[in-house]
Amino acid sequence: MAHRLYIETVGCQMNVLDSEMVVASLKRQGYELTRNIEQADTILFNTCSVRQHAEDKVYSALGKLKRTKRRYPDKIIGVLGCMAQKDQRLIFERAPYVDLVVGPGQLHRVPELIERARQGQGRQMAVSLGRRDGPVEEIRRSHETFDPLRDPTMRPTPFQAYLRIQIGCDKFCTYCVVPMTRGPEQGRPPSHILAEAHTLAGQGCVEITLLGQTVNSYRYQEGGRTYRLSDLLYALHDVPGIRRIKFVTNYPKDMTDDLLQAVRDLPKVAPYLHVPLQSGSDSILRRMKRGYTVEDYRHMMARIRETLPQVAVASDFIVGFCGETEEDFEQTKQLVRECRFKNSFIFKYSPRPGTKAFELMEDDVPEEVKQRRNNELLEIQNAISEEQNLELLGRTFEVLVEGRSKASWKQNETGPVYQLTGRTPCDRIAVFEGTLDLVGQFVPVTIYDATAHTLFGAVETRQPEPELVSLV
Ligand code: SAH
Ligand code: SF4
Ligand code: F3S
Known about the structure:
CATH topology of the largest domain: Rossmann fold
Strand content: 25-35%
CATH architecture of the largest domain: 3-Layer(aba) Sandwich
Shape: globular
Bound molecules: S-adenosyl-L-homocysteine, iron/sulfur cluster, FE3-S4 cluster
Structural class: alpha/beta
CATH superfamily of the largest domain: Methylthiotransferase, N-terminal domain
Radius of gyration: 23 Å
């Protein structure tokens, strides 16, 4: 009988993509996916270490498997991803019944290692070298990109896909574990990226999201030429079948004019930029080692608004970072009001072993202060998001329909009508009524109501004049 695989994924888009790849490689070996953990003979967790909470979730899920493993010792339990790279043998110590620990740079070995564990060869571990564990080239080689296989059935939708253009990160923000877990920054060759885009388009994919921790820092040297993200965008724009291209996440210092101009000049590139600011205080930015000042970020925003007046900008913030005073936090609030982000992801600082901040700075903002700052900032951002969304009433957007948003439906003369959900070119969520044949299609949706997080609209049944459909 075929092996049955259960996989749970936490963390960022990189992990979602990694899980797609792992599942594809195991399916090649005859595995079948199951959503029921009890029916699985192979249980994998693809993990994240960016905040303590993400790790706690996995350790608690592992704890629940202790009895399962005692009853069914043949079941294989594996921990993959960033926590595997960070904690390594510690995972076996905390959960001795785990069979497999595989870091994000070694995922190509998962099928082989599962097989070994199954044959009774004991615990298996494959991790990459640490950032100080040898010559740079060797460290790089130990973090392999793993992008050979695509499996449309593993994606949230078959017509949308992530495409990795870069692995690792060299920015070393003092709070962040990613440069340790994902290793040195390395761009993938443009030829590989393009070939994969063609494969995806051949599978019916219409939207691709390019992934990199600092995606706009992408560089690749080949034949005496340096390729940048803007060069990739031009090349990908010509791939038949691909109709929308996004890229995340951007690093403020690398938001160059050639990139902004490419976003402006290429209609398939979504007018949406995720460029985390993290804090509105210079002293905090310095302690975070973000490499820019508030003034630098303001200048970047001004350049963005000048080249791309209609673009939506999103940000991330960390509140309660080491040494953050009320005054620092007031400055962050001020920047959020000023920059008018489409949305912001707000996180409470979580000290991460192995980082500079963990080693050298005191986590001195009490949890309740972090929580209050989180709530306050979110409230300001939500008010801005709602204001912006309300400005869009009456406008028509080209929405890529992703699926049903609710279980409810009603019967119409022509058949069942559902509440559908999709995204506008500027990455806003729109919900509207429609039939299921619209899923995977681009449809014009006119907005009639909005909250901070959702646009409510109706599909235009009359073909609108092309110039009335907002591309942004
Ligand atoms: N490479 C991306 C994303 C990194 S992780 C980037 O640089 O933008 C996603 C977000 O998690 C970060 O932007 C940051 O806001 C947050 N984050 C990272 N480390 C954190 C920590 N130790 N505590 C709390 N939030 C953190
Ligand atoms: Fe982490 Fe900073 Fe790299 Fe982003 S840029 S992954 S926050 S070190
Ligand atoms: Fe988490 Fe690793 Fe992504 S730490 S955020 S899964 S790169």
